[in-house]
Amino acid sequence: MNFSVIDTIIVIVYMVASAAVGAWIGRRQKNTTDYFLAGRTIPWYAVTFSIVATETSVLTFISIPAVSYEGNLTFLQICLGYIVGRILVALLLMPAYYRGEVNTAYHFLGQRFGQKMRNTASITFIITRLLADGVRLFATAIPLAIIIRSSGLLSDLTDSQFYVVAILIIGIFTMIYTYIGGIRSVIWMDVVQMFIYIGGAILAGIIILQNLSEGMQSLLNFPDIFRKMEWFNTGFDLTFRQFIKEPYTFFTAVIAGAIFSLASHGTDQIIVQRSLTCKDLRSSQKAIIWSGVVVFLQFFLFLFIGIMLYVFYSGATYQQLGLTRSDGIFPKFIIEEMPVGISGLIISALFAAAMSTLASSLSSLASATVLDIYAPIFGKGKTEEQLLKISRRITLVWGVVLAAAAFSFIGLKGTVVEVALGIASYTYGGLLGVFLLGIFSKKANQRDAIIAFATAMVVMTVVIQLVQVAWPLYTVIGSATAVLTGMLSNAISVQLKKKES
User: Fold this and answer.
1) CA 310 to chain centre
2) Three-state DSSP class for 238?
C-alpha cells in the first residue's frame, strides 16, 4: 500500500493547523522576556514534555528504531546515564542560574568570568546547534521524501532533490509560528505534538504485532531474538582498544552518558532556555529530572519498535528492502503497511514533532544571538519594542541558515541520531568544563576560562581525528581537559604574581 491521497491531505492539514495554532498561542509578545522566556510562567510539566520533544522527537522516530534494527537494546544503558546526568544538572547548575537574573545559559559565564567568555560560549553553541540541528532537519526530510516519491508527485526529481523539497516545506511552516509566537508557542506545541507522536508510535507498534503471523509469539520465537533483546553489556571481553571504541558498554554508556547529559541539559541554550521559563528553581529542577525518566521510557518504546520491525521484515538489511539508509525502515513500514488515514496521522505527528524541534532550535539560536551578543554590545539605548523586532528578524535569518545546513548533510552516512550526538559531543565537553570551573573554582578568572576552553577544543580535535574512541567519551575528555587546564592556568598565574612581587 502506498501513501494515499487521503494520507497526503491529512499531513498537509495537520502541518498548516500546527503552524496556525502555534502562532495563535504566542500572539501577544511585548518584549524579549516574553519572546524568549515566556515571562517565566510556564508550568514545570509542560517544560518536561517540551524538553523531551525537543531533544528526541525526530531522531527518536527515525533513527532509534534503526539502531535496534541493526543492533540490540544496549543503547538503553546511555539512557540510564541521561537520568543520572539530569539529576546532576538539577543539583549543580540550576541553582547557579537562579541566583541572578540570568536569561541564557551563557549569561552565567558572563557574570562569572566576563563578556568575552560569554561571547565565546554563545558563538560555540550557535555553531554546534547549527550543525546538530542541520542533521535533525535533514532527518525529517527522510520520511517526507519517501512520501513525495511514493505519491508519484515530482517523479522526475533525484533523491537529493526530494530531500531539498522536504526541508523547504518543513522549514517554511516552522518559521511562521516561531517568528510570531516565540518560546511560548514552541513549548505548548511541543506538549501537544509529543503526545500525538508517542500515541502514533504506540499505535504503529500494535499494528506491527497484528501483522505478525502469531503476534507476540512470532516475536518470542524468532531465531535471533535473544541477541536482539540484549540490553546489558559490560564489554569486559573486549581489549582496552576495543573497549574505548564501543559506545554501548555499561560503564562507558552510564558514566559518559551522565556527563553528556550534564553538558547537554546544563550548558546548551536549547534546553536551558526552557528551564528558565519556569517560575522558580524547584519547578525547573523537577522539569529537568522528570525529563530523564520520560526520555528513558520513550527510547525503550522506539528501540522495541525497531526489534519488532526486524522480525516483521525477517531480518532483511535495509538494502534488501530497497532503501538507501537504515533510517528509512520505520517510515517505510508506516507508508506501505499501515491502513489509509492511520499512516497519514502518524506521519503528521512526526512532522509536527519535527517542526517543534526546529522551532526550538530557531528560538534558542535567536535568543543566544540577541541576548548574549547583540544586546550587550549593540543594543544599548534600544527599546524593548525595537529589540523584539530585531529578535524576530534574527529568527527568520536562522531559519534560512538552518535549512542551508540541512542541505549540506544530504548524502550523510550512518544513522542520523549517532551523527547528531557525535557533533554535539565535540563541543559539549569544553563548555561543561568551563561551567564547572566557574562554579567550583572561585579563583579562576576569564583568562583561565578562555585558555581552558580553547585547550579543550584543541584536544578534542586531536582525539577525534587521531584517536578512535566512542562518541560518548568525547564530553568526558573535553570537560576533564577544560577543568584541569583552567586550574593549572590559574595556579601558574598565582605563582608568577608571587615571583613578581
Assistant:
1) 26
2) coil
Note whether 231 and 77 are within 8 A (CB).
Answer: yes
Structural domains of the chain, ranges and CATH numbers in brackets: 5-415 (1.20.1730.10)
DSSP H or E run through 14: helix 5-25
Q: Which three cell numbers stand for residue 100?
A: 541572578
What is the share, in percent, of the chain residues with pLDDT greater than 70? Answer: 92
C-alpha cell at 495: 605563582
Q: Phi and psi dihedrals of 232, rounded to 5?
A: -110, 125
Cell of 363: 528560538
Q: What is the mean pLDDT of residues 312-327?
A: 86
Vertex 441 angle, CA 436 and 442, to 5°? 130
Distance separating alpha carbons of residues 198 and 345, to the nearest angstrom: 12
For 277-304, write each residue's pLDDT tens digit: 999 999 999 999 999 999 999 999 999 9
Q: Identify the weakest region by mean pLDDT among 40-49, 147-156, 189-198, 329-338.
A: 147-156
Q: Which three cell numbers stand for residue 386?
A: 525595537
CA angle 492, 497, 500 (to 5 degrees): 125
* Count of Cβ atoms closer than 10 Å to residue 425 Cβ: 27
Of 117-121, 152-156, 178-182, 328-332, which gets the smallest average pLDDT? 152-156
Q: What is the 3-state secondary structure (H, E, C) of 279-348?
A: CCHHHHHHHHHHHHHHHHHHHHHHHHHHHHHHHHCCCCCCCCCCCCCHHHHHHHHHHHHCCCCHHHHHHH
Who's near 110: CB < 8 A, 6+ residues apart? 117, 118, 372, 376
pLDDT band at 419 (very low <50, low <70, confident <90, very high): low
What's the length of the chain? 501
Question: Would you say residue 405 has pLDDT above 60?
Answer: yes
Q: Are 364 and 186 in contact (CB under 8 A)?
A: no
Give the pLDDT of residue 73: 92
